[in-house]
Design brief:
With about 675 residues, the chain is of the alpha/beta class. The relative contact order is 0.11. Bound molecules: 5'-O-[(S)-butoxy(hydroxy)phosphoryl]adenosine. 5'-O-[(S)-butoxy(hydroxy)phosphoryl]adenosine binds near residues 333 and 434.
Length: about 675
């Protein structure tokens, strides 16, 4: 990885520091009530992690067999609660059935077409009801021969059945891999091929901004795609389960495709939870890296669930009366840990919304907050910046006084957006928890605790219990406070990834070689005088576009797969709304006319290969790409060019890098 010297670039503080003490209400009632209490427990958790984690695992989770060893650790392989057995769905559902939680709402859902009406599409599932649905669907999986360890793809809109399908898998030890509905048929096929899935669970569509997303059609296309040798990519798929959601006209393939609603009529609602090894694979979630195709991040059972449960409990300070809403899609890790597993393990009420924040109007979120009495809202800075742009009049139309805690995740939040969230949405009374973590970490790693930590706009503040982050230089030595470096994690933690599916060498190379013996996050960071961690953003070739993680290499390979393209280089440029925007520099083959039509064709190509989320915002044609003498594309230079004046809409200027290349060559 080429992150050397990049860390030197991280500039010094430019923020005027404002400190917000924890709200009195939280300091009185939250689990952690003061900095002194946080510091004491934190110290215990890192000086004797095994005792700390054993205590938490015993208190928080129901085990069917106790573990023999808390941690078995040899870089880069961690095993937590070795020998222990438990079941995730039993911890999220069955354990609540003997308590008053049984009849509380586990999931409250609203569909997008509900629009403004109070008679729109809403569903509430109590824990008891959710338990029944999960048992039924787990029996459907069994009926079709799925067994412990088999892999299943879930490609669904944000509907309760997404959570039901996930939990049903965990109930019988099937490993799920959720694919975000915004990814293409090609991405679905690649993921099926990579994890050799036996089944796809999808729907006849889902609603997004008033239109129907053609999920089933994408699955049909995925199952017909071939690799370079003419072999079907997704040949391991035996069955496709279709959820009726959009009443959309779809193709049903006899013998392969089955309807969810018909299947559950044919099975019993009795399905005992399978005791699973603590280290049994729980799910695979694909995420972009700096090279090649997305990596299948593997999480396992006991450690992941403990991390999800504990972080949800302490960071969001959940109470039985809360209506907790994490706006992430289940296709991302935030949806796994903070829509499904964390809240349900805590017996909380998790609110789910299917659609876009501005459908039918830009006040949809605030309408929901007021209508359902949402108390905790967890969303992304990119969404907050969009709300800012749409204007205060939209939240002002609604009574947001039910809110008591706000959270953000996915990218650094700029202090302006933080302040707007605090004032306009939080009415100046709600603490904001800016939570830093990654697909790989399983759960929140650096975060304020609302009853204890004074916050400052723009920083995720301090590490969660048991987490040992450090900012280091290129040699792996800790840097002094106020100077920039790479963010690493020094000690293993229960929710950490256990590997990359099918590629342990890549796991070692990506995360453990950059700084010997430590987990490398890929992020640049610095600590301020109080030890608060300020994440600067990715220092590898991964972009964060509107909170979505996109690998430049993937987009480049999608672009060069177009027959008229010779070379492509993709970089990020700062974007007011999305955090980063994607800029592609493209050279075309001899004789090809680089025009607006080609530009559009290339955007479509990327949408087809990866998904609409990865479409470049800007495509610039160049005579040649600036390269070093050894032939490496000078990305730093391209970043500067991209960040400079934007090329106007449909002029198709060819950029000439010959001068720039000479200027920049000494830097790379
Ligand atoms: C990358 C991980 C983890 C949930 C969603 C994203 C960036 C995430 C923050 C934050 C600054 C953040 C980092 C990280 N990031 N949260 N609070 N402040 N940056 O998961 O897709 O795996 O992306 O998102 O760059 O490495 P992901």
């Amino acid at each position: 990885m080429d992150s050397k010297a990049k860390t030197a670039n991280i500039s010094s503080f430019q923020h005027e520091e404002r400190v917000f003490p924890p709200a009195a209400e939280f300091s009185a009632t939250a689990h952690i009530k003061s900095m002194a209490q946080y510091r004491k427990l934190y110290r215990q958790s890192v000086t004797d992690p095994e005792t700390f984690w054993a205590g938490q695992a015993e208190r928080e989770l129901v085990w069917t067999k106790p573990w023999k060893k808390v941690l078995q650790w040899k870089v880069p392989s961690a095993k937590w609660f070795v020998g222990g057995k438990l079941n995730v769905s039993a911890n999220c559902l069955d354990r609540h059935l003997a308590s008053p939680t049984a009849n509380q709402a586990a999931i409250i859902w609203e569909g997008e077409p509900a629009g403004a009406g109070i008679h729109g599409e809403q569903r509430t599932l109590t824990y008891r009801q959710l338990h029944r649905e999960v048992c039924l669907f787990a029996n459907v999986l069994k009926r079709h021969g799925l067994k412990k360890g088999d892999r299943v793809i879930i490609y669904l809109p944000m509907v309760p059945e997404a959570a039901i399908a996930m939990l049903a898998c965990t109930r019988i030890g099937v490993v799920h891999s959720v694919v975000f509905g915004g990814f293409s048929a090609q991405s679905v096929a690649d993921r099926i091929a990579d994890c050799q899935a036996r089944m796809v669970i999808t729907s006849d569509g889902g609603f997004r901004r008033g239109t129907v997303v053609q999920l089933k059609k994408n699955v049909d296309d995925a199952l017909a795609l071939k690799d370079a040798h003419g072999e079907l990519l997704a040949k391991t798929i035996e069955k496709v389960v279709i959820l009726r959601r959009a009443n959309n006209d779809i193709r049903v393939v006899e013998g392969r495709d089955i309807w969810w609603h018909r299947e559950v009529e044919q099975v019993s609602a009795d399905c005992p939870a399978e005791p699973m090894d603590s280290e049994a694979p729980l799910f695979i979630l694909y995420t972009s890296g700096s090279t090649g195709k997305p990596k299948g991040i593997l999480h396992t059972t006991g450690g992941y669930l403990l991390t999800a449960k504990l972080t949800t409990k302490y960071v969001f300070d959940l109470r039985p009366t809360d209506v907790y809403w994490c706006t992430a899609d289940v296709g991302w890790v935030t949806g796994h840990s903070y829509v499904v597993y964390g809240p349900l393990a805590n017996g909380a009420t998790s609110f789910m919304y299917e659609g876009a924040p501005n459908h039918p109007e830009p006040d949809r979120f605030w309408r929901i907050v007021a209508q359902y009495g949402v108390t905790i809202l967890y969303t992304a800075p990119t969404a907050i910046r969009a709300f800012m742009k749409w204007g205060e009049q939209w939240p002002k139309k609604h009574d947001l006084s039910s809110l008591r805690l706000l959270g953000t995740v996915g990218e650094p939040i700029n202090p302006e957006a933080w302040m707007w969230y605090h004032e306009v949405i939080g009415g100046k009374r709600c603490p904001i928890v800016d939570t830093w973590w990654q697909t790989e970490t399983g759960g929140i790693m650096i975060t304020p605790l609302p009853g204890a930590t004074p916050t400052k706009p723009g920083t995720a503040t301090l590490p969660f219990f048991g987490i040992v982050p450090e900012v280091v230089d290129d040699q792996g030595r800790p840097v002094p406070r106020l100077s920039g470096g790479k963010l690493v994690i020094r000690q293993p933690w229960p929710g950490m990834l256990r590997g990359i599916w099918g590629d342990m060498d890549r796991y070692q190379a990506t995360y453990w070689n950059e700084v010997k013996g430590s987990y490398f996050t890929g992020d640049g960071c610095r600590q301020d005088k109080d030890g608060y961690f300020w994440i600067v953003g990715r220092i590898d070739d991964v972009l964060n576009v509107a909170g979505h993680r996109i690998g430049t290499a993937e987009v480049e390979s999608a672009l060069v797969s177009h027959h008229e393209v010779a070379e492509a280089a993709v970089v990020g440029r700062p974007d007011e709304l999305k955090g980063q925007a994607l800029v592609a520099f493209v050279t075309v083959k001899t004789g090809v006319v680089a025009d607006q039509k080609l530009r559009e064709a290339l955007r479509q190509q990327v949408a087809r290969e990866i998904g609409p989320v990865a479409k470049p915002d800007d495509i610039r044609f160049a005579e040649s790409l600036p390269k070093t003498r050894s032939g490496k594309i000078m990305r730093r230079l391209l970043k500067q060019v991209a960040a400079g004046t934007e090329i106007k809409g449909d002029t198709t200027t060819l950029e000439d890098f010959s001068v720039l290349a000479r200027l920049g060559s000494s830097e790379e």
